[in-house]
Structures are given as C-alpha cells and as structure tokens.
C-alpha cells in the first residue's frame, strides 16, 4: 500500500479505477485496482494506461499543466470534457485512424467550423506524440493519419 493520503487540493477521477490526487507535496496517481502510487511529480511511465479517459488525465497533469499556460490548460480541459463517451472508453492500444476520423466527423456534424476542428486535431496529434515518447502508446499517431479539413479561403480586411 502507498503512503497515507495528504490533505486534498484537487482530485481527478476517471471512469475506471485510476485516480489522480494533487496535494501540497505534489501529485500522485493511484491505481486503485493494484494499490500502486507514484509521487514527486516525475513522469509516470510505470502507469499502464487502459482507456483514453485515463491517458487524457495523465497527459493533462504530466505535460499540459507543466508546459503550457494556465489558460491553455483550462481550454484543453473544456475540450476534453466534451469528447464523446464512446471515444473516452476506447482502449488506448486500439485507437486507429478510423476512430480519429469519426471523432472529427462528429464535430463537423455538431456544426463546428473547420478551423476549430483542425485546432482540436492538432491538440490530439500533440497528445499522441507525447504518449508515444512516454511509451504510453505503441504504433503511429492515429490523428496524424487523418487529413486536416479544408478551411476555405480566409478573408482579410484591407
């Protein structure tokens, strides 16, 4: 069993047994299924990520929070909160370009503009690139395989 829990500052719970606790002394990930913990804010390569939901939590805390502006972190969080449940429940090692294409098509059907969809695609390309570097994902980046949407002519004011 890991060290005792400190006072909570922020807790993230995924749909599975993975829990991220951020305390005064740093953050740690608790995998309640195997009772394992990491502390000290180091990269958590030892976590076996099972679903996209879990991967997003790890990416947001281990990468985005540490390397991006606070406003960017909150913007990403807002986007991630609106990802369809079918995508969040996918096993990470099963994500394919067809899933990426389906997600972009869902956003298009919801009425999002091509520029917004392409921006979100770029976020996912970055997340999967990070996951590959951190050994959380094996294979090629599924979002890199999906073409950007045509944004049409951009009007410029003169």
Automatic annotation (TrEMBL):
It comes from the Bacteria. The keyword DNA-binding applies. The keyword DNA-binding applies. GO terms for molecular function: DNA binding. Pfam families: Int_N. Residues 50-132 form the Core-binding (CB) domain. Keywords: DNA-binding. This is Core-binding (CB) domain-containing protein. The lineage of its organism: Bacteria, Bacillati, Bacillota, Bacilli, Bacillales.
């Amino acid at each position: 069993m890991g060290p005792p829990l400190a006072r909570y500052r922020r807790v993230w719970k995924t749909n599975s047994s993975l829990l991220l606790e951020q305390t005064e002394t740093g953050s740690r990930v608790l995998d309640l299924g195997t009772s394992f913990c990491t502390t000290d804010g180091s990269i958590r390569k030892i976590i076996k990520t099972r679903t996209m939901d879990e991967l997003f939590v790890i990416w947001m805390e281990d990468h985005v929070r540490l390397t991006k502006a606070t406003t960017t972190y909150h913007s990403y969080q807002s986007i991630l909160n609106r990802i369809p449940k079918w995508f969040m429940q996918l096993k990470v090692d099963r994500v394919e370009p067809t899933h990426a294409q389906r997600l972009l098509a869902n956003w298009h059907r919801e009425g999002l503009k091509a520029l917004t969809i392409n921006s979100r695609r770029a976020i996912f390309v970055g997340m999967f690139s990070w996951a590959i570097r951190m050994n959380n994902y094996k294979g090629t980046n599924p979002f890199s395989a999906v073409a950007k949407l045509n944004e049409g002519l951009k009007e410029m004011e003169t």
